[in-house]
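Before we proceed, please read the two lines closing this message. Let me know whether the structure tokens fit the sequence:

…
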Amino acid sequence: MTYKLNPAIAKIALPVTLVVDGEQMEFENGKAAAEATFDQRYAVASIRAVGEAVEIELEQLPAVDTSWGDSASLSFF
């Protein structure tokens, strides 16, 4: 499963640097950053201006439990 960031990031017209666990990823603008896909769920921890770019620090969110439990006992009626 892949994940994307909050689509509001696409509104940033300046270059964007995403910081994930100390690793930096640079994008031409917010639209390019919003189109990036990730293997983990991330939320925006902080946003700041650095020179001529916007730096967005991301924090990993906990995994979501998508199991339905015992499907044999599951009923909608």
In short: DSSP finds one helix and four strands in the chain. The first strand starts at residue 16 and ends at 20.
